[in-house]
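Researcher: Let's try something more involved. This one mixes different molecule types, so please make sure each is placed in the same coordinate frame as the others.
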Amino acid sequence: MAKVKVAVNGYGTIGKRVADAVALQDDMEVIGISKTKPNFEAQVAALKGYDIYVPETSKEAFAKAGLKVAGTIEEMIEKADIVVDCTPGKIGVTNKALYEKAGVKAIWQGGESKDVCPISFNAEANYDQAYGADFVRVVSCNTTGLCRAIFPLDQKYGVEKVRVTIVRRAGDPGDIKTGPIDALVLDPVKLPSHHGPDVKTIMPHINITSAAIKAPTTFMHLHVLNIKLKKDCTADDVKKLFQSRPRIKLIDGGISSTAEIIEFGRDLGRSRNDMWESCVFKDSVSIDDGELYFFQAIHQESDVVPENVDAIRSMMKLEMDNLKSIEKTNKAMGIGL
Amino acid sequence: MAKVKVAVNGYGTIGKRVADAVALQDDMEVIGISKTKPNFEAQVAALKGYDIYVPETSKEAFAKAGLKVAGTIEEMIEKADIVVDCTPGKIGVTNKALYEKAGVKAIWQGGESKDVCPISFNAEANYDQAYGADFVRVVSCNTTGLCRAIFPLDQKYGVEKVRVTIVRRAGDPGDIKTGPIDALVLDPVKLPSHHGPDVKTIMPHINITSAAIKAPTTFMHLHVLNIKLKKDCTADDVKKLFQSRPRIKLIDGGISSTAEIIEFGRDLGRSRNDMWESCVFKDSVSIDDGELYFFQAIHQESDVVPENVDAIRSMMKLEMDNLKSIEKTNKAMGIGL
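Model: All components are placed in one shared frame. Result:
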């Protein structure tokens, strides 16, 4: 069977990872990536052998930098079966007309509004909804992390109420422009934050509220979860449930910080030290006064990457069973090792 | 020929990297690593298949954590031809009697005083001095970075005077105990700092002074160099000279920070995002009023790692020619790619 032709529009934090993850699969291939500036990321894209497509106005700059250009972004889109749009948040929506004109399917990221298309996506919770669809939005890193925890809990015990406090990393490690350097920023002041309610784009029946704070760190987001379940269970039951999920990793080994989780990822030899799984701190899982509590850390740069691969598989009808797609993606990427 | 048996005593930031680098060589092997706590680093060591040796008093904790122990640290040392001591600074010297008693060769790191043994080491500058030696100290990350730049400049143009300002990363990425969070710390107040003069343990004739400041960052150290050369040359001459060296990487691609260099390392697929080379900012290399100026970034976690491999090769008489050893080490580790 011919491989599905995937174009990655926008080769930044998420785009470069999606390209590498797609390249590892045997049922899809990267036919090109787009870049606007001939910076070090473009140099590495060339080293990896990706065809680089650029805006007409960038051609001269790429030539000057000695980087070969395969064509314009429009030309890339025409060659693709599906485009993964990883352009910065709120820019992606402006590309929609381009995709519609070319008659290609498209995936947006969680930085876009839920209104960019009718279907928001999480591989474990609603893979079926995206089956054969033309347009899908993979929800944000935080929403992805929340869905991965809430979905199995809801299936097994029923979820009555979720309260989550999200302490967000303020910027990514390679980002030298974003602050704060030294402050905790209410994000936003008026409650709730959009993060928890965004879960409803995947699971509309979940009663959830969230508060968010930005902290001066780059490694990961941290969630403090409080969940009221409908049926009784023990902390050990929840640990076993989480252990059985394909994209939750229970963290122990003396680790009590996001910094050490990333160090763990480096030691494991993960590509870019990525922690694609939700990282639940094993010893934090506890039941107090009948309610479940735990901490989980979410790697903002990478946790949505395997979700994009599964979304492609669902939209292109490569696999009907979500757990089979997840297993295939995980195996190719080394998730769970 | 039988491979040289290397024991790595201390499996932290440097030790785990030295173990991985030794394991990549075809003329030496890791016969064991030592660890005092069964933390995530020990878990990964076990995953990688290293034999783990522990203090007698730690055996119970390792058993409890389900980690297999191969024996005591003393037993590991007896099996080795050479020990790379990567225990914390000032602890290494206390192990010297142990190595002498077992009759094994040993390498210490730059965190130890230069008085731990008569020979300090840099692969490019004084490989010959370590040839067949029993005890060698690989100089610190900063001194290594300075030697790599000063040695070829001195060979080609003669160095009359070096002035360096070192802005140090305060802690490593996985370190959650070291500060400052928000301050620039004079390190120390009284000039010069030990960094520049430590170069004299390798090249005694170099006239050098240094000032150091600690900054709240974890990625890399940054050197601001001012060098008065004896013979005239242009900035392009220096760039070409640096380009020709095996462990200097000229950095461009729009990069103006240590954060972006590490991001570059992640994108390149480097193990633990390590930048083993001195990273000279290409566009910073300049001549002003007859003196050379440039910035270089030094990856404190990894730049000494290939130096340790070359030190083993010299001490064990595996290779007489330093450039051949460097080339062999570089090729096995992927340095220069």
